[in-house]
Amino acid sequence: MNNPLSHIGVLVLAAGASSRMVSVKQLLPFGNSTVIGTILDKVCALQVGKLVVVTGAYPEIYMECKSKSEVLIPIHNRKWRNGMGSSIACGTHFMNRHFKEIKTLLVVLSDQPLLTVGHLKKLIQPFEDLHNDHPDAVATSHRFGRGVPAAFSHRLFPELRKLNDDIGAKSLLSKNTLDCHTIVPDFDTIDIDTKEDYLNLLNK
Predict the structure, then answer these.
(1) Alpha-helical regions (H) of 74-116
(2) Between 164 and 52, where is the model more confident?
(3) What is the CATH classification number for the domain harbouring 104?
């Protein structure tokens, strides 16, 4: 049976070095799994076309993804030290080269385990029917403006491939000329940068 969402791909960004943590934050315990394991379960639940995890600093994350599910495709970003933008560019290049059927990319962080499947579905909903008009992007509304998780139309793939800094897609999403919708998150958007962040997350 054909998958109606086969033209949508997901990039999970998991390449950073967790420089303010004493351990690999994505592999910390969370619920019955790990931080990244919880997120991967949620993106797998979307049943979209391709699921790519961009790894970098820690080979353990690559191996975690390989063992998690056969539908997950872990790749290594050799330029991970350049920041989140380089991981988005790496993942977009990979998708464009190997899966030309992908027309929408959903970009997700690997350290927000409170993320909900419902929120992800809202982000990709405008892109589900290829025959309908859709915006350039649908982003999550944050206090500082638009941000990820966010879904991007194929019209923005050339811009995504050019990213190469530590602010990720923020500069692209902030453009006034961009046709970008925003979705208010239905979850606490706390991410894990320090041990205190992790402990606070466990108390949510």
Answers:
(1) 84-98
(2) 52
(3) 3.90.550.10
